[in-house]
Amino acid sequence: MIYPKKYDVIVIGGGHAGTEACLAAARMGCSTLLLTHNIETLGQMSCNPAIGGIGKSHLVKEVDALGGAMALATDKGGIQFRVLNSRKGPAVRATRAQADRALYKAAIRTILENQPNLDIFQQAADDLIVEGETVQGVITQMGVKFMAPSVVLTAGTFLGGKIHIGLENHSGGRAGDPPSIALADRLRELPLNVERLKTGTPPRIDAKSVDFSSLEEQWGENPLPVMSYLGKVEDHPEQVCCWITHTNQKTHDIIMGGLDRSPMYTGVIEGVGPRYCPSIEDKVHRFADKDSHQIFIEPEGLNTHELYPNGISTSLPFDVQMDLVRSIKGFENAHITRPGYAIEYDFFNPQDLKYSFETKAIKGLFFAGQINGTTGYEEAGAQGLLAGTNAALRAKEQDSWCPERDQAYIGVLVDDLITMGTKEPYRMFTSRAEYRLLLREDNADIRLTEKGRELGLVDDERWRVFCEKRELVASEHQRMKTTFIQANSPEAAILAPKIKAPLNREYSLLDLLKRPELTYADIASLKGEAVDNGQVAEQVEILAKYAGYIDRQQDEVAKLRANAETLIPNDFDYSNIEGLSNEVKQKLIEAKPDTIARATRIQGVTPAAVSLLLITLKKRG
Ligand code: FAD
């Protein structure tokens, strides 16, 4: 049957990409359908129940700045919050939350069920309706045809999913869920480039069987941070402790002894795994000189005894998993509740996508999440938001949108995937962004919320909070710029014990804030009243302390934009550019970019290298 309601956008898959995609399209006023295997698994975290971390929190906050759900759900589900790199500069500072997986899922489901313009339907999508080169809709497992001009596919690890534990393997989308075989077969008939990747997860442990007395405790941050720009500390549930333990020589011997039954080391698994999140067998094999690896023991939730031992992802046979777990301090009598496993799945070469995430081969068909060769909830959520937005724009017959590399980590992610493709699961790092000081996690709203409002992604409440913050930052910056403190004044006396060089002239509060030893809290209320808003205070402080660096990056961006279309002749000799490293020269020789814009997108070609390239091109005339 053809379903009587025609939709503007259909999203297949209710994981992290799918939920952000359908919410984005629905917020933009499009009549949207979310078609997913199982309503109970909406927003399910397949692996570690943790959101954020270095590079990843930047994506979460960008999704939030554009009205997405991930950060709000993290504030409702986070049972331990940490700020990573807190002693380093604001560019690489990152918030990470351990979540209660049930609370996180419940928060996502509540947001989905309360979203106007969104219908949810539980059923596998087995086929796409494609006429000529254009998608028209989706056919479900029981033959229902849903029609829409835009379809977003976010099937995660489910397409042709194969689960491995030792030399045993079976089909599955992830443990406990069916794979997507019919759809995977259908997609292989379409002109799309399909390849295989793999990822893995550790065995879960029953806390009742763990000896915590021998383990190192790790508590979260105090004061507690929030993930969303709208988040409130009061939204957080009870906060809990994590623990740290380590593998040892005995663990490593057990692992090495089991490699002859490892699907990875016997060639049973063909897909490439995530380099930055290797299995424990990979770590022990590759870094044979290390006699110990750290394991973070993280609770899976407030109302469960299950623990996630972060650092021992494995696909070794179950008997080896039991032995290796029990060789670890604290786990001597551990009971495994779920075995670790690896999963192989289909992904599509992202170089076959447009910047909107629409496939080049099939009009109206968009791809987002793990199927584009990425790994991680945050990477998936960010892509989902972008694909859902562009699917909605297409349905409305409007131009597509994608942020630039200097505007958002989402822009970096998309540009990396589309220009370079990927041979291994791609994850975000701050080092992938050239303009880290502009793309901080604290200013994602300043960078993106206005655009989100224009696109229809940002609701009235978020817009009100944002405008208020933006105005407060501007007025507080101005107040600090025009409020002065004299040498030998009572205010100078208050500051004296905190400062290195004494005040010997008149200073504005803003000048004082530039001193590394002083914080906003130290000086804002010396004269007049400080703002009672942590986010505003943080902005004012960062903008003062890093003004020079931020201005320099903004100049670089402006210069690069002005020169983006400068042509590079095909026969250009890179070996003659003075000051360029051999590595960068090699990359340029191999990639042969035809414009400066393309050269900037080659990984490892820094803004400084591009400046040298420009100078040489100009000399050449
Ligand atoms: P998913 O979260 O997988 O969601 C896909 C959704 O689509 C599911 O709801 C599914 O039911 C639905 N679906 C699929 N096919 C159909 C269909 N035909 N019809 C209807 N619905 C369908 N990430 C890390 O960052 N680090 C890790 O260490 C890590 N380890 C992992 C280990 C394992 C075993 C697995 C399975 C995943 C791991 N991940 C890891 C990846 C992480 O889970 C994903 O990056 C993230 O969930 C991707 O989000 P997604 O929305 O693309 O897909």
TrEMBL record:
Q: Where in the cell is it found?
A: Cytoplasm
The tRNA uridine 5-carboxymethylaminomethyl modification enzyme C-terminal subdomain domain covers which part of the protein?
A: 544-615
Extent of the signal sequence: none
Q: In which residues is FAD bound? A: 13-18
- Cofactors named for this entry: FAD
Name any one GO molecular function. Answer: flavin adenine dinucleotide binding
**NCBIfam families (UniProt xref):** mnmG_gidA (TIGR00136)
Its recorded name reads tRNA uridine 5-carboxymethylaminomethyl modification enzyme MnmG
Taxonomically, what lineage is the organism?
Bacteria, Pseudomonadati, Pseudomonadota, Gammaproteobacteria, Cellvibrionales
Gene name tied to this protein:
mnmG
